[in-house]
From TrEMBL:
MF (Gene Ontology): alpha-amylase activity
Domain Glycosyl hydrolase family 13 catalytic: 14-405
Lineage: Bacteria, Bacillati, Bacillota, Clostridia, Lachnospirales
Protein name per Swiss-Prot or TrEMBL: Alpha-glucosidase
Keyword terms of this UniProt record: Glycosidase, Hydrolase
Example GO biological process: oligosaccharide catabolic process
Top-level taxon of the source organism: Bacteria
PANTHER family: ALPHA-AMYLASE FAMILY MEMBER (PTHR10357), NEUTRAL AND BASIC AMINO ACID TRANSPORT PROTEIN RBAT (PTHR10357:SF179)
InterPro entries: GH, GH13_cat_dom, Glyco_hydro_b, O16G_dom_2, SusG-like_C
Family: Belongs to the glycosyl hydrolase 13 family.
SUPFAM superfamilies: (Trans)glycosidases, Glycosyl hydrolase domain
Keyword Hydrolase: yes
Length: 540
């Protein structure tokens, strides 16, 4: 049905610009580097690129601390380069999605520089302040990257609020002037022809620090609806809000088909299933596979007809999925394809994070080789708390954000073809075996499998609109489901683990069917699943 918004049958590719392609030898990826790689992205078949932030920034949190929303950081290029990227990408039928960081700015943003000059400054109220006495914090709220949420400013006798680092003061959305400035800025980018926006930690903008509320504050959806009305609804955009605190019912608001808020949200319920309950992501636990199936299935069922899912295993904050829930050693290729199959046949818009299509893996570096503020802070914090070094490193190897941020592996030349200089973060030493050049040449590569999955989505409307049903809910190894649209039925069967097992599909699916994709050249038999075997059937 061609009345659908374009993003319903699109696949988005996330680029972390500083790690994608360096064009000038300074060791940092840049906009020209992305332009140089558009052919590769067109070959993969994606429809849009989500760019992690490239606006002007002191890079305390790699660009998630913006000091000028209407300029590009010189490290990445200029406004001209961005206009060029948008135009060149359009020639490849690829849209550019920008990352809007609206919960906070950099402390070096001119608004904050003014705001902390005096309480009467016209920008003072752009941020969240509380009067106080040094040493007596307004409350015990903790910042995401460690320490208190409150930072003392001696000259004012006030604390400012920051949910992330001290260099990321939170904006005060209760101030209508702040909202207006933000909307003007968004409209300015829309005039430049961007295809959409990803909204960083959007569920935290309506915080109520006095009540210790961060996510889902009472005015959240009023603010989002106002923003959408004043900006997004004037264009034909894809918009995706990052909402850690989302539930299916909240997601129905965020992604209401009436277009009053966003196209979709990123929800993270499946992402926390391998950590100790109620603890931090660093407190590792084995994946609860049954729960994973139930959680993903719950979201599929709840949003069908009422909203829209985004589908992802990876992003720039998460470890590499093949290392996390696959097997990055003897079954790297098989398990990467299996995980892709599970995800890409569900209802929603799939997101591929750079290098995922190559099966790039996690890394194990020395502490001083890491660059991420969160990783470095947790190392300090847990060292001070008396954790053993090996234990801390084990958590960082499993969950550290730099796992996703190592440079893109293009070829077997020095630094994986990412840079002619010194890369800002060390390249994963496995780049001579895992790289794009090899993948493009190999018919059985993970890259070519992703390409096929993307093509299937374009070919079979059932993948876009079909109703989801989970099969074998309690099976400890198999992830199986169907998608049904009118008289078309798709059957997906995946072995999530590395042992050969019997495939106990329900009787009604033992009839005639066509195998449309499989990650093995040959199946043993219909009743046997090889390690990480994944099959997609069309029922006859
Ligand atoms: O992340 C949101 C967020 O909540 C992160 O703290 C996330 O929980 C963490 O990375 C997981 O350990 C967004 C961005 O994606 C992230 O890169 C930024 O650092 C953060 O917002 C602040 O802007
Ligand atoms: Ca560069």
């Amino acid at each position: 049905n061609n009345q659908q918004p374009w993003w319903k049958n699109s696949v988005v590719y996330q680029i972390y610009p500083r790690s994608f392609q360096d064009s000038n030898g300074d060791g940092i990826g840049d906009l020209q580097g992305i332009i140089d790689r558009l052919d590769y992205l067109e070959e993969l078949g994606i429809d849009a690129i989500w760019l992690s932030p490239v606006c002007k920034s002191p890079q305390d949190d790699n660009g998630y601390d913006i000091s000028d929303y209407m300029d590009i950081d010189p490290m990445f290029g200029s406004i001209k380069d961005m206009e060029n990227l948008i135009a060149r990408a359009n020639e490849h039928n690829i849209k550019i999605i920008l990352d809007l960081v609206l919960n906070h700015s950099s402390d070096e943003h001119s608004w904050f520089v003014e705001a902390k000059k005096s309480k009467d400054n016209r920008y003072h109220d752009y941020y969240v302040w509380r009067d106080g006495v040094k040493g007596e914090l307004p409350n015990d709220m903790k910042a995401c990257f460690g320490g208190s949420c409150w930072e003392w400013v001696e000259d004012l006798g006030q604390y400012y609020f920051h949910l992330f680092s001290v260099k990321q003061p939170d904006l005060n959305w209760d101030n209508p002037k702040v909202r207006e400035e933000i909307y003007n800025m968004i409209n300015w980018w829309m005039d430049k022809g961007v295809g959409g926006f990803r909204l960083d930690v959007i569920d935290q903008i309506a915080k109520e620090p006095d009540l210790k509320i961060t996510n889902n504050g009472p005015k959240l959806h009023d603010y989002i609806r106002e923003m959408s009305r004043e900006t997004f609804q004037k264009g034909d955009l894809i918009t995706v809000g990052e909402a850690w605190g989302s539930t299916p019912s909240l997601a129905k608001l965020y992604s209401n088909p009436d277009n009053s808020e966003f196209s979709m949200v990123f929800q993270f319920e499946h992402i926390g299933l391998d950590q100790e309950e109620g603890k931090e992501k660093w407190d590792l636990a084995p994946l609860d596979f049954i729960k994973l199936k139930k959680v993903l299935s719950k979201w599929q069922v709840a949003l069908h007809g009422y909203g829209w899912n985004s589908l992802f295993w990876n992003n720039h904050d998460l470890p590499r999925i093949v290392s996390r829930w696959g097997n990055d050693k003897e079954y790297r290729v098989e398990s990467a394809k299996m995980l892709a199959t599970v995800l890409h046949c569900m209802q929603g818009t799939p997101y591929i994070y750079q290098g995922e299509e190559l099966g790039m893996t996690n890394v194990k570096y020395q502490v001083d080789e890491y660059r991420d503020i969160e990783t470095l802070n947790i190392y300090e914090e847990r060292t001070q708390k008396g954790y053993a070094k090996e234990e801390i490193m084990k958590s960082i190897y499993a969950k550290g954000r730099d796992n996703a941020r190592t440079p893109m592996q293009w070829d077997s030349t020095d630094n994986a073809g990412f840079t002619k200089g010194e890369p800002w973060l060390k390249v994963n030493p496995n780049y001579t075996e895992i790289n794009a050049e090899l993948a493009l040449k190999d018919d059985n590569s993970i890259f070519n499998y992703y390409k096929k999955l993307i093509a299937l989505r374009k070919q079979y409307p059932v993948i876009i609109d079909g109703k989801f049903e989970l099969l074998l809910e309690e099976d400890p190894n198999i992830f199986a489901y169907t998608r049904t649209l009118e008289d078309t039925e798709l059957l997906v069967i995946c072995n999530f683990y590395g042992e050969t097992i019997g495939c106990t599909i329900p009787e009604q699916y033992k009839k005639d069917k066509e195998l449309i994709l499989c990650n093995y050249k040959q199946s043993v038999s219909e009743e046997v699943l090889q390690p990480y075997e994944a099959r997609i059937y069309l029922m006859k």
